[in-house]
């Protein structure tokens, strides 16, 4: 008696050649069906593109986008860079594991962009000090010393 249920289970577990063949026929018939209206497929792709553009932004995303737009127009706007940094840092909760390192990496990323965006930004004491403070968390002593040397020369 135990062999009959096992065989019955095997019959259900393994697809038969007939099942496999019918599956393939369905797939082949889908591939063979010609597109009846090319414009409908292009309309569908166009509408899906439109959908992605209308996805509502979160408040943070909208703020970040506005700041990025503002900085694209006026890259020497120090307060906009600091605001961008502040808003970006809100994405990393302070109490999480490795938060200090993550926040330092974000700070270096944003402020290195700020320092490179406009020649006058390299003379901003607040941008440079925040950049150096974040660098203390991540950089080797030789890198930190080189950055300080560069900061002093830029002033």
From TrEMBL:
<dbReference type="GO" id="GO:1902369">
    <property type="term" value="P:negative regulation of RNA catabolic process"/>
</dbReference>
<dbReference type="GO" id="GO:0031048">
    <property type="term" value="P:regulatory ncRNA-mediated heterochromatin formation"/>
</dbReference>
<dbReference type="InterPro" id="IPR013633">
    <property type="entry name" value="NRDE-2"/>
</dbReference>
<dbReference type="Pfam" id="PF08424">
    <property type="entry name" value="NRDE-2"/>
</dbReference>
<dbReference type="GO" id="GO:0071013">
    <property type="term" value="C:catalytic step 2 spliceosome"/>
</dbReference>
<comment type="similarity">
    <text>Belongs to the NRDE2 family.</text>
</comment>
<feature type="compositionally biased region" description="Basic and acidic residues">
    <location>
        <begin position="7"/>
        <end position="34"/>
    </location>
</feature>
<feature type="compositionally biased region" description="Acidic residues">
    <location>
        <begin position="35"/>
        <end position="53"/>
    </location>
</feature>
<feature type="region of interest" description="Disordered">
    <location>
        <begin position="1"/>
        <end position="58"/>
    </location>
</feature>
<protein>
    <submittedName>
        <fullName>Uncharacterized protein</fullName>
    </submittedName>
</protein>
<keyword id="KW-0539">Nucleus</keyword>
